[in-house]
Amino acid sequence: MASTPKNVIVMAKALDDLITLDPAEAFEFSSTEILANVYDRLFIANPENPSAPKKGLVEDWWRSDDGLEYNFSIREGAVFDGGRALTSRDVVFSLQRAVVLNKTPAFILNQLGLHRGNVEEKIRVLDERSLFLGVDRPYSSSVVLNILSAIVTSVVDESSLSEHATDGDWGANWLRSNTAGSGEFRVSRWGVGEYLVLDRKDASRSDITRIIIRDVREPATQRLMLGRGDIDIARNLTPDHIVALATKTDAVTWSTDQARIFYLALNQRNPLLADPSIRRALRMAIDYQGIASHLLPGRARVHQAFLPLGFMGSLTETPFSLDLEGARGLIDRVDFSEDLTFTVDVRSDPIALQIAQALQMTLGQIGIKLDIHPSDGKQVLTKYRARRHDIYMGYWGPDYLDPHSNAAAFASNPDNTDNAEQKTLAWRNHWEIPGLTQATDHALLIRDQRMREEAYRSIQREVQTDSPFIILFQEKALIATTGEVKGFKLGLTSDQTLYTNIVK
Q1: Which strand (E) or helix (H) includes residue 196?
Q2: Domain termination site, one of 110, 142, 175
Q3: pLDDT digit string (tens) for 261-318?
Q4: Nearest to 305, CA basis, from 296, 297, 314
Q5: How many other C-beta atoms lie within 10 A of the C-beta of residue 127?
Q6: Taking the model in full, what pTM does it have?
Q7: 158 and 269 housed in the same domain
Q8: Amino acid 2: pLDDT
Q9: What are residue 474's DSSP bridge partners?
Q10: Contact assessment for residue 153 and residue 42, using Cβ atoms and an 8 Å cutoff
Q11: Claim to verify: residue 171 and residue 289 sit in the same structural domain
Q12: Strand pairing of 233-234 and 469-481?
C-alpha cells in the first residue's frame, strides 16, 4: 500500500465552496475552516463554555459600566508571514476594513452597530498594544466576544495589504487568492478545483510541516484513496463507506456532531401554510426517527430546536414524532376549498431527494400532496431568498458560537416589507413576529447568563411549537483516518477545526 510523506498530512475534502481566501469576504464552510488555521482573532470560540470565548490575541479586556465601551490589550509574540510583529493597528485596520468593504460577512459586525459612517470613531487605536471598541447598545459581553471570534474579524497584515492595494480596494483583489496572517499556517499554493497547500510557518513546532487538501468531491473516491494510502484523512464519507473501511483496512472511523441543522421553511404568504392546524399537522406527519435511521445513519440526529446541541441554551427535547392519526384530525378542522398541494424546493442531491420522497409519502397519507422541485443549490437558495417558495428544505449553520447567531435568523423579523434591510430566515418565510422579534432583541442585553439561557429556551419553544420552521435534524460528520494519524478533531463549527495538533 502506498503512503504519504511522513511530514505531510494529505486530506480529501470537497472544496467546491472555497471561493475566496479573504476573511472579510469568506462565508463558506471550507473557507472559514482554512482561514481559522491561517489567521489569529481577538477571541476563539469555546465549545466547553460557549458564553466565555477563549482569549486569542487578547491579553486582557475591559468593559465600561454602561456596556457601550470596550478596551482590549494585545499580547506580544504574534508575527505575520513576513516576520513583522502584529500590533493593535493591524487589529483596527482589519476590523475597519471588514466593515468598509461590506461583503456578506460584514453583517456580523453590523450587529454591534458598526457601519461605514462610524467605524473610524467606534474602532480606534489607543497605543501599540491596545485598542478601543464602541458598540451601540449594552449587549451581553458574551455576544460581543463571540462576534469577535468570527472569521470576519481575522487580523490581516496592514503593511502587506497596503503594498498590494489597487484603486483603494484595501488589498481585496490580492487577498482573494493569497494570505497575510499570523496563524500557524500560510497558504502556499491553491489550485482551484484541485488542491490547497498549507505550510507551517515554524517547522520546528511539529513534525508535520505541510497540510495538503485535495478537492475530492465523491465519497467513494475518498474511500478508495484512503484504502490505497493516497490520503491520510477522508472528510465526506457515507455510512456504507465507513463500514467498508472499518472491515477492510486499518482505518480509524468516527462521527461527531456539527452545528448545522436541517429544517423545512413554510412560506406564510401561502394562506394554507399560514394556518396553525396545517403547520402542526405537517410536524406530526414526519417520520423523524425513520429518516434518521434509514436515510441518515450516523450522519444526523433528530433535533427539533434552532440552537444546535453544544450551544448555550440549546434544547434536547423532541416533542414531535410520527402521528398520522393526530395529523389527520388537525387537517379535518381546516376549511379549504382547494386541494392541499404544496411544492418543496430541494437541492439535487441524492440524500436530500430521498428525504423529500419520505416526506412526500407520509404527507400523502394525511391528504397533502407534495410536489418535489429539485434544482442546484444556487437556484434553490435564490428562490428561497426571494420568498417565492412554498416549502424549502435546507440547512443552516451559525456564524459564531453565541445563541444570537441562530436566534437572529429564526426568531427575528424587524421589517417584513419586500425591501427590508435585515432579510432574516423569518423574513424569507414572510413571518411577521413583532413580539418574538422584541424578545430576541431583549435577550441580547441580558447580562446574567442563566437568565439569558432561559430566554433562548423560551424563544426556541415558541418557534418549535408553532412557527413556519420545522427543525428536523442536527448534522453529524463521518470521518476516517489512517491508523497513523493522531490529534485530528473536527470542531462543532468549521472555524473550530484546527490542524495544529495533527501528527502521524
Answers
A1: strand 195-200
A2: 175
A3: 999 999 999 999 999 999 999 999 999 999 999 999 888 999 999 999 999 999 999 9
A4: 314
A5: 11
A6: 0.89
A7: no
A8: 63
A9: 261, 301
A10: yes
A11: no
A12: antiparallel
Which CATH number goes with the domain that contains 84? 3.90.76.10
Residue 468 forms part of a structural domain: yes
193 located within any domain: no
CA end-to-end span of the chain: 16
Distance CA 34, CA 499 (A): 9
Residue 264 forms part of a structural domain: yes
Bridge partners of 475?
Answer: 300
Compute the distance between CA of residue 66 and CA of residue 137 in angstroms, rounded to an integer: 9
**CA gyration radius, the chain:** 24
Packing angle of the helix pair 276-284, 324-332 (nearest 10 deg): 160
Calculate the CA 360 to chain-centre distance. 28
User: 12 is written with which cell numbers?
Assistant: 480529501
Gap between the Cα atoms of 20 and 14, Å rounded: 15
CA distances from 114 to 96, 102, 111, 120 (A): 9, 11, 7, 10
The whole-angstrom separation of Cα 93 and Cα 89 is 6
CATH number at residue 327: 3.10.105.10
The DSSP 8-state label assigned to residue 22 in this structure reads: -
Cα 29 from Cα 201, distance rounded (Å)? 24
Q: Is residue 191 part of a domain?
A: no
Grid cell listed for 382: 435564490
The Cα 42–Cα 182 span in angstroms is 12
At 449, list the grid cell. 447568563
Neighbour-count burial for 418-446, b at 16+ CB within 10 Å, e otherwise: eeeeebbbbbbbbbebeebbebbbebbeb
263 and 154 assigned to the same domain: no
Total domain count for the chain?
Answer: 2
Segments forming the whole domain that contains residue 132 = 29-175
DSSP state of 338: S
